[in-house]
């Protein structure tokens, strides 16, 4: 490749692709070209950083080949186009972590485009870069390892182009150092490794600038994640306001922030900043830092955390994305994803034994509530058994409205109390 990966990716946006971006973002062509100039280096550096992680070369090599095979550098059918845009966005969110929206904000500010357009450009940049990587790998017959060496060199040659050089009229808030967030690190945990996204570095030059950036980052992250990523929000995770009458079976960490969905009657949890669990069996899961999956995995993998065999009300972890149809034992379709994730985690810890607990709110007949909670716990247990977990490793028990985690006086409180939980009995 005579030109750099970043410049080739930049030039890959033909007039047809630019027109497609214009139609999708309602921004003018010149502004989008300016945004691409700043977003492409970020995407390239993020991908270059990913190859340093576990299975990184094989992952990026495969994604590149898939992107090139799908002709992502050419206008695609609407359905395929939407799929790749979603993949690009998920990839950039995973690689940049909580700096994703801060980076998008800087792109938007520098190019004078809206935040949705900046996020769309970041996604398109990642997809285009993958297409170029796939094309180059095929033409040069690169293996995953040789591709990784080349991509690392390409990433190392880049300097940030996010923010123009400060000048006399630059406001202090936007004159932060022009650094692309360094990709996160892979940290060993138990039998696997966990990808921890990077955190934005503090700017010691101005306490005012730091405070402004921190507050804005919190606002952007919370605002976005409360309504996006299939109710798997990221960013800073504030604990829900003080809860009264919390029984011993529930800790403050179990009453996480979120929102009540009046349409479904469910409580949508804030599951924290996105990260990637890399399990010992080679599989990965994209989850939130405070999600059920990550909390369960950390407990099982961390030798310093032990099962409390005396107080059996301790150690319960609420499922945050498992729901049932109203007043029934039928799981909603989206619930199977989290149950499958939990089953995958349990498979990597074959000695573990867990218990599933079912709970209801306090409205209605207590006996019927107990029976409903019992059947719901068994339904979740059988679902995971059907996913490959030995029945001898799973127990199920219903508790009705006995162990509420917040008063049942509001629809939100009742939604929080209608839940399924899991407790590790043996590691």
Automatic annotation (TrEMBL):
UniProt keyword Membrane present: yes
UniProt xrefs under Pfam families: DUF937, OmpA
Keywords recorded for this protein, A-Z: Membrane
InterPro entries hit by this protein: Bact_OuterMem_StrucFunc (IPR050330), DUF937 (IPR009282), OmpA-like (IPR006665), OmpA-like_sf (IPR036737)
Source taxonomy: Bacteria, Pseudomonadati, Bacteroidota, Cytophagia, Cytophagales
Protein name listed in UniProt: OmpA family protein
PANTHER family found in the cross-reference section: LIPOPROTEIN YIAD-RELATED (PTHR30329:SF21), STATOR ELEMENT OF FLAGELLAR MOTOR COMPLEX (PTHR30329)
Limits of the OmpA-like domain: 311-427
Keyword hit for Membrane: yes
Native organism: Hymenobacter endophyticus
């Amino acid at each position: 490749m005579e030109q750099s990966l970043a410049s080739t990716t930049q030039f890959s946006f033909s007039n047809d692709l630019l027109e497609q971006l214009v139609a999708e973002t309602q921004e003018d062509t010149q502004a989008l070209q300016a945004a691409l100039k700043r977003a492409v280096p970020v995407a390239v550096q993020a991908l270059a950083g990913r190859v340093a992680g576990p299975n990184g070369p094989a992952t990026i090599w495969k994604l590149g080949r898939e992107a090139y095979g799908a002709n992502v550098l050419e206008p695609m059918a609407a359905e395929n186009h939407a799929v790749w845009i979603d993949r690009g966005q998920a990839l950039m969110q995973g690689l940049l972590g909580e700096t994703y929206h801060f980076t998008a904000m800087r792109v938007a500010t520098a190019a004078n485009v809206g935040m949705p357009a900046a996020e769309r450009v970041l996604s398109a940049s990642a997809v285009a870069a993958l297409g170029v990587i796939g094309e180059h790998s095929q033409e040069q017959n690169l293996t995953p390892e040789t591709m990784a060496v080349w991509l690392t060199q390409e990433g190392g040659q880049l300097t940030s182009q996010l923010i123009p050089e400060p000048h006399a009229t630059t406001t202090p808030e936007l004159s932060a150092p022009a650094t692309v967030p360094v990709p996160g690190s892979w940290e060993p945990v138990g039998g696997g490794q966990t990808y921890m996204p990077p955190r934005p570095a503090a700017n010691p030059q101005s306490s005012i600038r730091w405070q402004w950036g921190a507050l804005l980052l919190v606002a952007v992250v919370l605002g976005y994640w409360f309504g996006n990523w299939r109710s798997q929000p990221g960013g800073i995770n504030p604990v829900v306001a003080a809860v009264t009458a919390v029984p011993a079976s529930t800790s403050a960490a179990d009453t996480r922030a979120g929102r009540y969905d009046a349409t479904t009657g469910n409580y949508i949890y804030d599951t924290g900043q996105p990260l990637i669990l890399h399990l010992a069996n080679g599989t990965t899961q994209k989850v939130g830092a405070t999600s059920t999956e990550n909390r369960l995995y950390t407990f099982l993998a961390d030798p310093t955390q032990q099962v409390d065999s005396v107080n059996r009300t301790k150690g319960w972890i609420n499922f945050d994305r498992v729901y049932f149809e109203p007043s029934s034992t039928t799981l909603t379709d989206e619930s199977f994803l989290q149950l499958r994730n939990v089953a995958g985690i349990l498979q990597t810890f074959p000695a573990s034994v867990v218990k599933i607990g079912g709970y209801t709110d306090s409205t209605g007949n207590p006996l019927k509530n107990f029976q409903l909670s019992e059947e719901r716990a068994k339904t979740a247990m059988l679902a995971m058994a059907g996913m490959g977990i030995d029945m001898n490793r799973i127990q199920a028990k219903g508790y009705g409205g006995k162990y509420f985690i917040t008063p049942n006086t509001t629809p939100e409180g009742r939604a929080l109390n209608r839940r399924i939980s899991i407790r590790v009995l043996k590691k």
